[in-house]
Specification:
The protein is an alpha+beta fold and 352 residues long. The chain has 2 domains: 188 residues, 2-Layer Sandwich (Ribosomal Protein S5, domain 2); 158 residues, GHMP kinase, C-terminal domain (Alpha-Beta Plaits). It is 42% helix and 22% strand. It has 11 helices and 11 strands. The strands form 2 sheets. Strands 1, 2, 3, 4, 5, 6 and 7 form a 7-stranded mixed sheet that branches. A 4-stranded antiparallel sheet has the order 9-10-8-11. A hairpin with a 5-residue loop joins β6 and β7. The radius of gyration is 21 Å and the shape is globular. The two termini are 26 Å apart. Bound molecules: alpha-D-galactopyranose (GLA). The site of alpha-D-galactopyranose has 11 residues, from α5.
């Protein structure tokens, strides 16, 4: 590749790529061992590497920035390079890497901080590139677990395993049903006559700064109340039996009902009942907005307008508090939906 040669004055030796994802249903259910149903997006991150002599050199085309370093300490300003350093640190801690240095070139067309997993994609792609370089025996599932460690142990986001699993194992045009407790998964075809459209709410969300970790804590609190039951095995009756904080109860109610919806959505997709799938998306959004309070008026309005414009189901996707709204539209109604939504929202907000 020309670009690699131009920057590092040699050819790359190994490469790998990983896609962004959109979660179709199942929000904040992964880190309480529940169910999720995301799918891959076309947008992807590609990583090219070769060995370097005495320091790591990383060029990101997305940020048009080159960074060199020889220690793996985290930056003090949440710089993108932390994801690279984090991957190298986790590989070292897990004894997959010794003292080698790398030249790393990163291409990406995944918008960042928008809830479609740009960070999981960069971690999965880099970890796979290094795996390919050394021919390491690491499965795609283990790659996902290592990428999750980067987020949790290095970056400090208490994320679940959904993003890394689908980014490492998922297949385009298939929904990826995941049991986050057992890590068993199922790839389900998405019918060709339906489209999942994404519109940017233009509300930037940074997992590190957002209320994501706050929600995590609230759900862990709920689990303390529900003990010995875990959230994924609790029912609404269990919630009512327990006399605990109203706010924590609301958060837990979202998760309990959301897990049921994911299972229903999986069945609906398999049975080709896309209208029902859409209804579940709408219910999911309402729960995400009212019980989980991860939405806001502007986002709720976008969801409403999308439904009025002909979408079967619409909801805020990802960690919450901004990012993209995903809408399910029948191909025959797509033109009308898009024309209507384009009257209100800028063309640039539509993810193609
Ligand atoms: C982020 C996290 C995931 C998951 C979602 C919410 O994307 O990385 O693990 O918790 O938010 O569903």
């Amino acid at each position: 590749m020309n670009k690699f040669y131009k920057i590092f004055n040699e050819n790359f030796i190994a490469r790998a790529k990983a896609h962004a994802r959109v979660n179709l249903i199942g929000e904040h259910t992964d880190y309480t061992e529940g169910y999720v149903l995301p799918t891959l997006l076309r947008q992807k991150t590609e990583v090219y590497i070769s060995l370097s002599k005495n320091k790591h050199n990383v060029y990101s085309q997305y940020f048009d920035e080159k960074v060199s370093f020889n220690n793996l300490a985290k930056s003090s300003n949440s710089h993108w390079i932390d994801y690279i350093k984090g991957c190298l640190a986790i590989l070292k801690i897990n004894k997959y890497l010794k003292n080698d240095f790398f030249n790393i070139l990163i291409f990406s067309n995944i918008p960042i901080n928008k809830g479609i997993s740009s960070s999981a994609a960069i971690c999965v792609a880099l970890l796979k590139a290094i795996r390919n370089y050394y021919d390491l025996i690491i499965t795609d599932k283990e790659i996902a677990l290592l990428a999750q460690k980067v987020e949790k142990q290095y970056i400090g986001v208490k994320c679940g395993i959904m993003d890394q699993m689908v980014s490492s194992i998922g297949i385009l045009n298939k929904a990826f049903f995941l049991n986050c407790r057992t890590l068993e998964y199922e790839l389900i075809d998405i019918p060709k006559d339906y489209i999942f459209n994404l519109i940017d709410t233009k509300i930037e969300r940074n997992l590190r700064a957002s209320s994501y970790n706050q929600r995590y804590k609230e759900l862990k609190k709920a689990e303390k109340f529900l003990k010995p039951k875990k959230l994924f095995e609790s029912s609404l009756a269990d919630l009512n039996k327990n006399n605990f904080d109203d706010l924590i109860k609301k958060r837990a109610r979202h998760v309990i009902t959301e897990n049921i919806r994911v299972l229903q959505a999986r069945k609906a997709l398999k049975d080709n009942e896309l209208n029902y799938f859409g209804k579940l998306m709408n219910k999911s959004h309402s729960s995400y907005s009212k019980d989980f309070e991860a939405s806001n008026k502007e986002i709720d309005l976008m969801v409403k307008r999308s439904i009025l414009s002909g979408s079967i189901g619409s909801r805020l996707t990802g960690g919450g508090f901004g990012g993209f709204v995903v809408s399910l539209v029948n191909i025959n109604k797509h033109k009308k939906w898009k024309t209507n939504m384009s009257k209100i929202y800028n063309k640039k907000q539509f993810l193609l």
